[in-house]
Write a structure and sequence with these properties.
Helices cover about 40% and strands about 15% of the residues. By secondary structure, the chain is an alpha/beta fold. The chain folds into 2 domains: about 170 residues, Aspartate Aminotransferase, domain 1; about 260 residues, Type I PLP-dependent aspartate aminotransferase-like (Major domain) (Aspartate Aminotransferase, domain 2, 3-Layer(aba) Sandwich). Helix 5 packs across helix 13. It is globular, with a radius of gyration of 22 Å.
């Protein structure tokens, strides 16, 4: 029996009523067009049920926020128990044990043998803002180096660090000063298409040259980077690149900040991607899957850095909310108990095997890449020119939705399909979703290769 059940087209009549109400009352900045044209009723694991009785397979996972799946029983229980005791105090007024225990757990799991501490925020963007504040306060320096293709959030400093213009940055400036951008080693699209080794060398050379062409290392506080770029299309750097960046940081006495908001919590098969690349960041930002869908984020790093900011300089009224901290502790129990890191590796193998089989005969598959369950496929109109297949990608996503599979795109050109499936998805559920995806990709490719106009759904 299939997991997907479609009783109506999307949106169904009840969802349509709510979507009409949405357009009358919710600002377009948030709701002009949602990815899924349906109103959720409830969800479990990797399955979403809408109010019209349709059941869909979720490969987007709340944009990577649901590694333990929708409404995991242990997380729900922790939320209920915490809410029954108290909902808020502001930790700086009346502290609570869940905050302390979560800090201890994350410090223990973060790479590096040095002493660590942690602080908590509400969102990934807030964690990034806080990490930058900490870096500047600790070093007494102002400049920050970030990367082409980066995504760090949409608050003002985070947006400055974010690379993608549309829809994020256009018309939103002026941005924060003393931020400098360098190329990220995107091997598939590096000019001239050299080898991974050559891309690694050139990218590190670009970074070194920044200190003679853009900003002095004596005025630079930190380099911030995603170990694997998320919004840019799950770009995996060449072997040795991140260690090379860390060596440059040590050489010039800079801090290394790793944004693991999307790569963390087992997405790559390890709790943190920094472990895979054998680096020890000075500061790590966490978010998304940290609390099973509740708003929570954190900064974990060297004790002397976290202590340098000073009392009251980092925080906010609701940061480290007690219910979210309790949920986050339950998430860690699920992660350990269900071995979600190992499950992520299995998911990645299953996705890659399916895509590899399709790629052998496909004219559109440019590159399949990723680590663990953090997998993506980049689609192109011609393998020789690598022209992005943006409209084709959009049509694949829309047609998959119409057939009951929620999937997400990425990349500066919107031509990358990325997998952010809950790590609790069953092999059978993933098989069903992948088969629909592959059938849809074949259909769209056939229309494209026969010179037909792509038919919108």
């Amino acid at each position: 029996m299939p997991f997907i059940q479609l009783k109506t087209e999307l949106p169904g009549p009840r969802s349509q009523e709510w979507l009409e109400r949405m357009h009358r009352s919710v600002g377009k900045a948030k709701a002009e067009k949602t990815l899924v044209p349906a109103i959720i009723d409830y969800a479990e694991g990797a399955l979403i049920h809408d109010i019209d009785g349709n059941r869909l397979i979720d490969l987007a996972g709340g944009v990577g926020s649901l590694n333990v799946g929708h409404s995991h029983p242990l997380v729900v229980q922790a939320i209920q128990e915490a809410a029954a005791r108290f909902t808020h105090t502001d930790y700086t007024v009346v502290p609570y044990s869940s905050y302390i225990e979560l800090a201890e757990e994350l410090c223990r799991r973060a790479p590096g043998t040095f002493s660590k501490k942690a602080v908590f925020m509400n969102s990934g963007a807030e964690a990034v803002e806080s990490a930058i504040k900490i870096a500047r306060k600790a070093t007494g320096k102002k400049a920050i180096i970030c990367f082409d293709g980066a995504f760090h959030g949409r608050t003002m400093m985070a947006l400055t660090l974010t690379s993608k213009v549309r829809p994020y940055k256009e018309g939103m400036g002026p941005f924060v000063p003393d931020v400098y951008r360098v190329p990220f080693p995107y091997v598939y699209r590096w000019p001239g298409f050299p080898s991974e080794e050559e891309v690694c060398f050139q990218a590190l050379e670009h970074l070194e040259n920044t200190f003679s062409s853009q900003v002095s290392p004596n005025e630079t506080a930190a380099i911030i980077m995603e170990p694997i770029q998320g919004e840019n299309g799950f770009i995996v750097p060449p072997a040795g690149y991140l260690k090379g960046v860390q060596e440059i940081c040590r050489k010039y006495n800079l801090l290394l900040i790793c944004d693991e908001v999307q790569t963390g919590y087992g997405r790559t098969g390890e709790f943190l991607a920094s472990t895979i690349f054998e680096i020890e960041p000075d500061l790590i930002t966490l978010g998304k899957s940290i609390a099973g869908g509740l708003p929570l984020s954190g900064v974990v790093g060297r004790t002397e850095l976290l202590d340098s900011a000073g009392d009251g300089s980092i925080g906010g009224t609701f940061v480290g909310n007690p219910i979210a901290c309790s949920a986050a502790l339950a998430v860690l129990k699920v992660y350990d108990g269900e071995q979600l890191g190992e499950r992520a590796k299995q998911i990645g193998e299953q996705i890659t095997a399916a895509l590899d089989g399709f790629a052998k005969s496909s004219l559109m598959v440019g590159e399949i890449r990723g680590i663990g369950a953090m997998r993506a496929v980049e689609l192109v109109r011609a393998k020789e020119t690598r022209e992005p297949a943006s409209e084709e990608t959009n049509q694949i996503i829309q047609r998959c939705l119409a057939r009951g599979v929620i999937i997400f795109k990425a990349g500066l050109h919107g031509n990358v399909i990325r997998f952010l499936t809950p790590l609790v998805i069953t092999p059978e559920q993933l098989d069903e979703a992948l088969q629909i995806l592959l059938d849809t990709m074949r259909e769209v490719e056939e229309e494209f290769t026969h010179g037909k106009e792509i038919t919108a759904v």
